[in-house]
């Protein structure tokens, strides 16, 4: 068994996040940011992962599969895992009813099956959001794991169902489900760090990569069999200078003894 596990994950949203989450279907400039991820960012990341011989996990909306089939097929043929990220990039909490969310999940499954020939085993919700129906729908569609929540930092754990959070009474955890959570963190996601915002300006990008390295190093020193999940988006991470910084981060992490780079699916199987 490895001392530490690293899961490099890619949310291949294409233009779907701009259309379905941000409501900017009429913004050619923002849509072009998604197209950069499809045409330039994703190939650069695939080349980098190939250089390091790393298998990664790509969470792909069905909208991306149907809009850019050749780009997504290149991910699959390069040997990377493709898992569920909705059909549309719609935050689950914004669906008007259970039937709408169910239909979107079903359509996303069908899109992945049409590309890969197999059903996805894992799910990552758009914007890491759940509705009151999401967990029961994941169970109904026989998903085995999720990677959207943040109940621990470096250890998988079972998602809980039947929890209660009344404003005038104590919180109740509920009971463990069969769905394994492989936790994420906003602190290890490139979008909030690097996505340009006129109000915020630019981040100190090398400092963010230093933070990601220090988080791995803390886990390596202090957590037995820890799982480190890094979340990236081709339209964000695929810029030339960030690919170089990511290359350096991967090289640094790989120098540590007994570190394994693997897929989220492989992690869930070991829980």
From TrEMBL:
It comes from the Archaea. SUPFAM superfamilies: Glycoside hydrolase/deacetylase. InterPro entries: Glyco_hydro/deAcase_b/a-brl, NODB_dom, PgdA-like. Residues 16-271 form the NodB homology domain. GO terms for biological process: carbohydrate metabolic process. Pfam families: Polysacc_deac_1 (PF01522). CDD domains: CE4_HpPgdA_like. GO terms for molecular function: hydrolase activity, acting on carbon-nitrogen (but not peptide) bonds. This is Polysaccharide deacetylase.
């Amino acid at each position: 068994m490895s001392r530490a596990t690293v899961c490099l994950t890619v949310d291949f949203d294409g233009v779907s996040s701009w259309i379905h989450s941000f409501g900017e279907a009429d913004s050619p400039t923002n849509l072009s940011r998604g197209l950069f991820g499809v045409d330039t960012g994703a190939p650069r990341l695939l080349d980098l992962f190939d250089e390091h011989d790393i298998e990664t996990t790509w969470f792909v909306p069905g909208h991306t599969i149907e809009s850019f089939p050749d780009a997504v097929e290149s991910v699959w043929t390069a040997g990377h895992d493709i898992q569920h990220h909705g059909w549309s990039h719609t935050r689950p909490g914004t669906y008007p009813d259970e039937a709408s969310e169910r239909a979107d999940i079903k359509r996303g499954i069908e899109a992945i099956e049409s590309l890969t020939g197999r059903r996805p085993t894992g799910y990552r919700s758009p914007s890491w959001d759940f509705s009151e129906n999401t967990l029961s729908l994941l169970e109904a569609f026989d998903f085995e794991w999720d990677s959207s929540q943040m109940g621990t930092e470096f250890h998988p754990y079972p998602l809980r169902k039947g929890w209660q959070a009344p404003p005038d009474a104590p919180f109740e955890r509920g009971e463990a489900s069969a769905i394994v959570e492989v936790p994420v963190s906003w602190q290890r996601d490139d979008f909030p760090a690097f996505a340009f915002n006129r109000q915020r300006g630019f981040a100190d990008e090398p400092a963010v990569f230093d933070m990601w390295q220090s988080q791995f190093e803390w886990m390596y020193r202090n957590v037995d069999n820890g799982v480190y999940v890094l979340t990236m988006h081709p339209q964000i991470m695929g810029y030339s200078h960030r690919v170089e910084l990511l290359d350096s981060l991967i090289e640094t992490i790989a120098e540590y003894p007994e570190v394994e780079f693997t897929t989220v699916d492989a992690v869930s199987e070991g829980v």
